[in-house]
Fold this sequence. Notes:
This protein is mainly alpha-helical. It has a domain at 38-94. The protein contains 2 helices and no strands. The longest helix is centred in the C-terminal third of the chain and has 39 residues, at 56-94. The radius of gyration is 33 Å and the shape is elongated.
Amino acid sequence: MKKVAAESYRDIDFARARRGAVVGSDPGKSKISIRLDNRVLDHFRSVVESAGGGNYQTLINDALVAYIQQMSVLEAVRQVVREEFAGSKAARQGVRKPRPVRGAAEPG
């Protein structure tokens, strides 16, 4: 195999070079590695392809954010229902009618 020599007309100084990404990531985002089912990737890639382009990773991120927001709204609704139920239960207990005793004669 032929050994390739550095080009003589380029004099590149790497003394102040740093390792890392050439393009920095957006604030609030982290680069990770994740394993997803092929059918998940195929779905999001096909959605992007049918839309005429875009980024399937952004689409996956948007779907996860929507799921988080949905869960947040669902938990808020559950909390309101719990509070309303507790309030109506307490109100019913405060205005409770006496239960007739079995076998007792009816008044009147």
